[in-house]
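Hi,

I'm pasting everything inline rather than attaching a file, because the server keeps stripping attachments. The sequence lines come first, and each chain or strand is labelled.
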Amino acid sequence: MSPKAYLSYSAAVILQALSNGYQYGFDIMDITGLPSGTVYPALRRLEQTGLIDSKWERAGIAQREQRPPRKYYELTPDGKDALAEAVKRYRLLEAVLPHPSKVTPSRERG
Amino acid sequence: MAAPNKSHLKLHLWLISVLGVIVPRRLRADWRQEWEAELRKRELLLADWDRLNFTTKLDLVRRSLGAFWDALWLQQLRLEDEMFQDLRYGVRMLLKHPGFTSIAILTLALGVGANTSIFSVVNALILRPLPYPDAERLMWVEEVSKTNPGTPAYGGHFLDWQQHSQSLDGIAQFEGGIRTLSGAGEPDRVDVGTISASLLPILGVQPLQLGRNFSPEEDKRGAARVAILSDNLWRDRYNGDRDIVGKAITLNDEVFTVVGVLPETFRFSSHFDVCVPLALDPQQELTGESRSYQSTIARLKPGLTIEQARLELDSLLQRYESTRPDGKWRFDDSRTRLVPLHEHLLGDTSRPLLVLLGAVGLILLIACANVANLLLARAVTRQKELAIRTALGASRLRLVRQMLTECLLLAVGGGAAGLLLASWLTTLLGTLNSTATIGEMAGVAAITIDLRVLGFTLLITLLTGLLFGLLPAIRLSRPDVNVALKEGGHAQGLHGRRLRGALMVSEVALAILLLVGAGLLIRSFVKLLDVDPGYRADNLLTARLQLPPRYSEQFRRVQFYEQTLQRLEALPGVQAVGITSHLPLTNYNLGGNVRVEGRVKPEGEQETSAPIASVNPDYFRAMGIGLRAGRVFTDLDGKGAPSVAVLSEALARELFPDDDPLGKRLVIAAAGGESTTVIGVVQDIRHQGLDQKIDLACYLSFRQTPRPGVALLLRTGGDPRSLTTAVRAAVREVDPALPVFQIMTMNERLSNSVGARRFNLMLLGAFAGLALLLAGVGVYGVISYVVTGRTHEIGIRMALGAQSSDVLGLFIRQGMTLVLLGVGLGLFGAFALTRVMTGLLFAVGAKDPVTFAAVAVLLSLIALLACYIPARRAARVDPLIALRHE
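And the predicted assembly:
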């Protein structure tokens, strides 16, 4: 899928959420209101088409909280272009999602 | 931060680990970690925020349930799994060796195709229930007694059972017959089913295609004449006339009103073009005034056993007999016998079928052995590749899996091709599906490929894939890395050679089994065709006639026959014309007791009963039945002259073991009960078929006892079939409304009578031929492989002075040792197994030494040829080239 191809609305919203700084699956669900059964497959597809990238969180944080490291996602340059295209189509996209608050702590990178 | 409480199970985490099972293996760990980390993190946060309550826990579960959709989406990534890598690699390897692949697939296709088509017959006849609702409750009812091994039930008993039985949901009688259908168009001879009104309901035929079934009132003596047409007759003769109900048709000069048309899907063991009510008369049956027997089918009430129903019918029968007046016929010692209808219709067809199924099973095993051999041969060239892969760290399991995948691909290819072959073979078998070949099931069962057959094909395909693949795969996955890499792929262990030898031996042994089976059938068939039927079947044309009721007066029948004979005798090329009421190879329509006048049989001894035929004087000459003593009839043995009879040799011996039968007097009920003088003795014939015993026969003059149903026999000088039209024309001149049917030569009748045997023989023979071919190819493959592997050695031997003949002898000796071992094992196996064929043989023992020897020699000769070709190649090798061969 070329970045120019039209994104579905849910994919566009997820890209926007990532762009706003919500980088974990569950945070994206919180902010977009989409169910996990929609968000995760969408993330997989976006990653497969090269619009987003995923990385593992640094082990230290996870160890401290006695849980496995989380996976976070970020936009690739292609993803940024695609989002810009999508914003032209879905004009309210930028307005509907807030920017990160204190809801999502511990976004330290690996 | 509080450590998460691990003591109790958390549903959302448990869900993730369960759902992870369906995630492709290579993604599974990451996937579980991602979800678990998110859930655990969220749990911690909620605890932090002091909001970890019932609602938020439920939310966690809901989120983890969403993982199912995630896992589902990931299924598409399976394509990159190892399995698909194996598949892609397998397809590439098979395409790279098209010769190997096509031979392997062809071999498997023959095996799978033969199995699928025979299984489709087994399925249609044995496995699939009869095409009626709750068919397992349908029973065939017969009467048996000390002296009677089984006859159709007596009409009086049937009526009583129908009225009083509590254990049956219904009972019906029916009988087949031939009548002349006239009216619109040519008069036609049609199969008429005389059925009780209950037959269609107990078979579950509801509703009819058009109209209705007979009502109980119409099934009574003296009711208005009504008829139901078959779908075929309705379409062919009445062009599918939707308004046929209520119209009249004429059967044997009687007018019937059509009340219905049978459904197109209706199938029955007897073929009926028209059904009319049976309409028994209870009073006549009770007093014994008439004695009628008809085939009987009953439907058991649900939950009742056959034995319960039988006991009830028996007690009803006893009660009925005790109320009957002492009449001509009594059945006090009769007992009922109930056999499931399916079992009755199958009769003895299941045994040859199971033998055939066994035979195709053997074919499949031979095919597997052949493909396994091919794989082993190819494996040698792949040893280097496998060694490299092992050296690079591929596990043994991984290699086995890779090779099994290739084998399954081959099997699936073979299976698909086999299914194509089977669909063609099944159509062929379907066209051979006739009463002559598979008995009474022919009318009921449709031989088709259904889901069960497809399932069977899939199963045997996968099984064969495992069977021929496992041995080579396990063997190959153990390459000695060092040896294989060093020797550049030409090494072959002793173990491999032994394995291939063992496969070849088993192929030969299996082929012997099949060949012995086919050989025994062929010998039986040849012996059968050698049997003297007692008459000369060549240059003999036969045709049948059935006189309608307007010929009920005897003189009219005689007149008709005389006029017809006159015309037929005048035809050019006709040497003699016979008329008989008992055409050989058809059912008897009249038999009866033949008693010597003045002789009283001791108590308990049965009267002699024999088929009684009405024939004309020239019958014996036309049939080629020799006169042994006395004379045959003359034109003077007619009405008013003394009643005379001619006996067959066997009957004469039976009645007069010590006396000269000529001039003796007999009492024959069928001849009107008056005293009949024996005037001649003729040669015995096998009336019922070549494989049947010699029949007794009593002949009467057709002028004294003319029967309404006869066969015409024309002894001709040339091809009898050229007279077909002339015979029709001659009969039409005498009576234009009378159809002549079943015009065929006596040889055709004989050939039909052995149809079932020929069918089995053809199939088993074809399978044995296939086995021979596969075994030959197998032997050839092994020997030529051995030759290639030993080229270097041959070079040395020849350089040291060995002659071509030495080399030739070496390989032939080596090959034939294995072949003879296989032949020995096969003969041994055949000795134990051919017992199952006893019922299929005729005049040949199951351990017939001639067959065993012939088969052993035949297979050895084929194998010798298969060894000779590669061995000769070895013997012609140029030592210089051979020495350089690596």
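DSSP finds 28 helices and 22 strands in chain B.

If the labels don't parse on your end, tell me and I'll reformat.
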